[in-house]
Design goal:
mainly beta, six-stranded antiparallel β-sheet, 12 strands
Length: 197
C-alpha cells in the first residue's frame, strides 16, 4: 500500500497512534470550514465526531452550521463553560438547546453523536451511552437553510468564524441525513475506540 502517515516504510499499518491523524486545533486561530458541507433541510439528521481537550471553563465549538440572531437558522455541538456537551437547533421559529452532565475536558478521547428527530427528540450520546435526557425538538421542524450563507465549521462557531475556537483535537467528523439509532451509534463507537486511546 506504500508508506504514508499511517504506515511504516514497508507499507504495514503502524500500531502507534499518531497526532497527525486528527485536526490539532488551538484557540490561536485553527479551524476548518466547508462552504458546501453540513446539512440544510427539513429531514432528520445526525452529527458525530471524536474529540479530546484539557481546556476547561470556556465555551468551545466542535461542529457548527448556521447563524445567530434574527433570521438565524443553525445547529451546533459545543462544550459549554461548565465542561459539558451541548447541542442546539434553531429553524428561526424555535431555538432548543440541551446538555449533558459529564465533564468532557479531561484530556481523553470522547466520542459524541447528536441525533435530530425533527418531529420528535434530540439526543446526545457520549461514548455510545445516552448523555442527558432526550429533548423535544419538534418545534424546530422547519428548514435549516441559513438566510445568509454560512459554512459548515469544525472547531469554531460558524456565525462569524471568529469566536469560541476549540483547543484540542477533533477527528472522524461525520453527518448523516437520518437519525442514527442507538445500535448504530454503538457500532460507530466500537469501530473507532481502538484508534482513539
Amino acid at each position: 500500500a506504500g508508506a504514508d502517515a499511517t504506515r511504516d516504510s514497508q507499507g504495514f499499518l503502524m500500531n502507534r497512534q499518531r497526532l497527525t491523524n486528527s485536526l490539532n486545533l488551538s484557540d490561536a486561530g485553527g479551524y476548518c470550514d466547508s462552504p458546501t458541507g453540513g446539512f440544510a433541510g427539513t429531514s432528520d439528521f445526525s452529527i458525530e465526531c471524536w474529540f479530546k481537550t484539557s481546556e476547561t471553563g470556556a465555551n468551545k465549538w466542535l461542529l457548527s452550521k448556521g447563524e445567530g440572531g434574527s433570521g438565524g437558522k443553525r445547529y451546533q455541538l459545543y462544550i459549554d463553560s461548565s465542561n459539558h456537551i451541548q447541542a442546539e437547533i434553531d429553524d428561526d421559529t424555535a431555538l432548543t438547546t440541551w446538555a449533558g452532565s459529564t465533564n468532557v475536558c479531561d484530556g481523553n478521547w470522547k466520542h459524541v453523536v447528536v441525533t435530530y428527530d425533527r418531529n420528535g427528540n434530540g439526543q446526545i450520546y457520549l461514548n455510545s451511552a445516552t448523555e442527558g435526557a432526550a429533548t423535544d425538538i419538534s418545534g424546530s421542524d422547519g428548514t435549516l437553510d441559513p438566510t445568509a450563507h454560512r459554512d459548515f465549521c469544525i472547531g469554531i462557531q460558524s456565525d462569524t468564524e471568529s469566536q469560541y475556537q476549540f483547543n484540542g483535537q477533533i477527528d472522524d467528523v461525520k453527518f448523516y441525513t437520518k437519525k442514527l439509532e442507538a445500535a448504530e451509534v454503538k457500532r460507530n463507537y466500537n469501530a473507532g475506540k481502538r484508534s482513539h486511546r
